[in-house]
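Appendix B. Chain record.
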Amino acid sequence: MNRMLIVTALIAGVMAADADQKLVMDGSTTVGPIAKAFAEYYMRENPGVNITVSESGSGNGAKALLNGSCDIANLSRDLKDSEKSAMKEMGVDPCKHIVAFDALPVIVHPSNRVKRLTIDQVRDIYTGKITNWKDVGGGNRRIVVISRDTNSGTFETFMHLVMGKDARITDSAEYTGSNGAVRQRVQMTRGAIGYAGLGFVDRSVKPLAINGIEPSAETVLNKTYPLARELYMFTNGKPVKDSLVQRFLALMKTVKGEEIIEEIGFVPLDAK
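Structure tokens predicted for this chain:
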């Protein structure tokens, strides 16, 4: 082998080694905190590895997997048929990994005296049929409807579980770009109602019982809470054995991974 070929081979080897030390993730703002916590822990345990996590929404995560700009796409919903078709056309083979279980609590301001709603009442609020809290047992105050943006997997899940195929969210609704923004808007607005992932609910807002069931890890696992879902990480094909992607994804099934998921506020896979 001449000197030029040797140098080329060495450069290719270095590039391959560098590539195996970098991991790019994009997608859901719900899955984002899990991905970031996993990344921080993994990089701390494996110096030299560089993991970046972007939170551009589930729809953009699917697009990033399609165009090859991420190694792992984080989604708070399953892939749509249109996304699967587009990936098939591009030769992308989406492989689904369930990372955790989640609830979709409906949240209000802590001062709101309403403690529970039915799914039908939530739907009527979001369509604009019910516009005042007094109509569902609360005070005489206008309801401020807060929703996730339409590119969000959380929005898609809410539409599927609550609104159904034909219902449409009221034109007066406000849309926000993240679960954290929903929580912030609700905690600052006495008449507000919103929805977010279980891990985003804290004392600054009040989660409502839906159909008489409180959102919790227990009611998610026993499938009694009606607004529950799975959270996903998608890869292009099954991860190669001992690759960085495979080692990273294995973290979710370890004791440490389960602790991280639980600490953030979601429900780990082996909790049941």
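Further analysis of this model is presented in Appendix C.
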